[in-house]
Amino acid sequence: MNSLIGTYECKVDIKGRLLLPAPLKKQLAPSLQDGFVLKRSVFQPCLELYPMAEWNLMMQKVNKLNKFVKKNNDFIRRFQAGVKVVEIDNLGRLLVPKDLANFAQITKDIVLSSAVNIVEIWDKDLYEKAIDDSVGDFADLAEDVMGNVNDDDNGIS
After folding, report:
1. How far apart are CA 107 and CA 4, in angstroms?
2. Whose CA is closest to 18, among 88, 120, 119, 90?
3. pLDDT digit of tens for each residue in the chain (157 aa)?
4. What's the CA gap between 110 and 142, in Å, rounded?
């Protein structure tokens, strides 16, 4: 799958469904028939929507862990806690299960944010706080993470 692009604000209806914005639905179109996996984020109070192909790649990595190592076993259990297989219906709606909505504090206003090959689903206020909190540190973070990457001939890095 190619990288997903965009950040979109939308709403969750009373039944917990969100309508995917048309540009995002178009990007996800190749994955619609295979379905998606929705899970809790490891590092943030948000949800992660994996196209099934991306989830299968992640599971290949996880399945390489030795399950006779307690930390690995604990990680697998917590990583997969609350994982749900979900589908996007013909109208482009996604039902967010109540337990996952509670985890991410999703009530009405949300943000769908691309994160390379997955989509993060955030409560709008928590998303804004996460972005605002990291503004001062982003330059240092960018240098730490990307500062030593220079494997392209395009002059960007």
Report:
1. 25
2. 88
3. 578 999 999 999 999 999 999 999 999 998 989 999 999 999 999 999 999 999 999 999 999 999 999 999 999 999 999 999 999 998 999 999 999 999 999 999 999 999 999 999 999 999 999 888 665 677 777 777 777 766 665 555 4
4. 26
Q: How far apart are CA 73 and CA 60, in angstroms?
A: 15
Owner of token pair 């996007």: 88
**Contact residues for 82 (Cβ-Cβ < 8 A; gap 6+):** 39, 40, 97, 99, 100, 103
User: Residue 5 contacts by C-beta under 8 Å, 6 or more apart in sequence?
Assistant: 27, 114
pTM for this model (two decimals):
0.87
Q: Which two tokens stand for residue 25?
A: 């639905």
